[in-house]
Amino acid sequence: TLSSSSAASDVYKRQILAPGGNPALAPDVVNASWSTTNGYSTVFEQDIQTLHQAGILPVFASGNEGPYLGTVGSPASLQSVFAVGASDPDDEIASFSGRGPSPWGEVKPYVAAPGVNIPSSLPGGIYQTKNGTSMATPHVAGLIALMRSVSPTLPITTMTHIITSTAVPLSTTLPNNDSGWGRIDAFAAMVALTHPGLIGGVVRSSGQTDGIPNAIVQATPRGPVGRAAQTRANSRGDYT
Predict the structure, then answer these.
(1) Three-class SS of residue 86?
(2) If you placed Cys at 4, which of 39, 43, 144, 227 could pair as Cys (CB 3.0 to 4.6 Å)?
(3) What per-residue confidence (pLDDT) applies to 6?
(4) Rg of the chain in Å (alpha carbons)
């Protein structure tokens, strides 16, 4: 739990920036599934700036005070803070999801993620489904962790751009103060990050000019990263 006191804030920053005194153990992303209904609060602004400067991206729940405009909570309401709203199984923004604009006029949230009927663990080793932007935010944190696992030095600005630009629009107006740039699409974001290419050719027998129809072609990665891909050539032996 973060505290507004200076001493507690310093302890918090040390724990995040250098867990156990070791900066190498600092996280890539901080999930913040909490907010205050006071969207004007700037208590944690300096702490968030410190995380940004260290290359750590915190993501904040936009709060559950919707559906009216200007209901985004703090710290999600702060400028340049990655705010997350909640979408439902029909890819519509949840009625309770906190809306922008922020008190400083910035569009909020940046994106939405599933936040309705989300399975979650509870004390006692049981699971229940829950609703809330606090259930949506971890989806974004997980995507950021996935992106950093592929590209450990990926800048915060680049991650933010990829996530917002590959989101599935939930409105004809982008961005907007209901769902931002839309519902996140982890697959599309990873495709944009990794720039996958295509391999193509013709399967032939040695010394022959005609292709072998319907041949099975498999590509296997040399190293420990990646997975095999398989396709079937067409009637002329062409494959992609």
Answers:
(1) strand
(2) 43
(3) 62
(4) 22
CB 16 within 8 A of CB 27: yes
- CA 176/CA 53 separation, integer angstroms: 27
Instruction: For the beta carbon of residue 188, count every other beta carbon within 10 angstroms.
Output: 15
Token digits for 74?
């703090």
Enumerate residues 6+ apart whose C-beta is below 8 A from 137: 31, 32, 33, 59, 60, 61, 84, 113
Task: Give the bridge partners for 229, in sequence order.
Answer: 219
User: Which of 30, 27, 32, 29 minimizes the C-alpha distance to 134?
Assistant: 32
How many helices (H) and strands (E) the chain has is answered by: 5, 10
Token pair, residue 45, equals 């602004």
Convert the pLDDT of each residue in 21-47 to its tens digit.
899 999 999 999 999 999 999 999 999
Exposure of 136 in the CB half-sphere (CA atoms within 13 A) = 35
Task: Measure Cα distances from 104 to 66, 153, 180, 183 in Å.
Answer: 18, 30, 16, 23
pLDDT digits (tens, 9 = 90+) for 178-207: 999 999 999 999 999 987 777 899 999 998
Q: Are 71 and 97 in contact (CB under 8 A)?
A: no
Query: From CA 8, how far away is CA 10, in angstroms rounded?
Result: 5
| Structure-block tokens of residue 162 | 């990829």
> What is the total residue count of the chain?
240
119 Cβ neighbours under 8 A, 6+ residues apart: 127, 128, 129
Which two three-digit tokens encode residue 49? Answer: 């700036």
3-state SS string over 53-76? HCCCEEEEECCCCCCCCCCCCECC
